[in-house]
Amino acid sequence: MTSASPEKGFDRICRLAEARGLAEVERDTSYGTPALKVAGASFVRMKDADTLVLHCPHEQKVLLIEISPEIYFETEHYRDYPVVLINLGAINDEELSLRLHDAWMFKAPERLKKA
Fold first, then answer.
1. pLDDT digits (tens, 9 = 90+) for 72-96
2. Which of 34, 39, 69, 71 has fewest C-beta within 10 Å?
3. What Pfam families would the database entry show (predicted)?
């Protein structure tokens, strides 16, 4: 996959989040890049045109990186944060959709998770 603008990658993220039916998701920015938020909390954002920053529990991050290092990775900057980086050119829509749902569940307030 060739490099695209952040907006094109972000359009894919938005399409998948909408198809999942994630509640109270809004488009916004985080650290100057396009982001999706749930109830005001960012759960995913573009790092650059090819890389997504996805919020997740540390245990999940470790497992994802171990299982699929061609898709999931971290840099020194993100080492101690509950986020994993995703190579958008290496992940298919089905798996990315699942990761978006997981990130939404990680950041959504309890009232939304129960609905």
1. 999 999 999 999 999 999 999 999 9
2. 69
3. YjbR
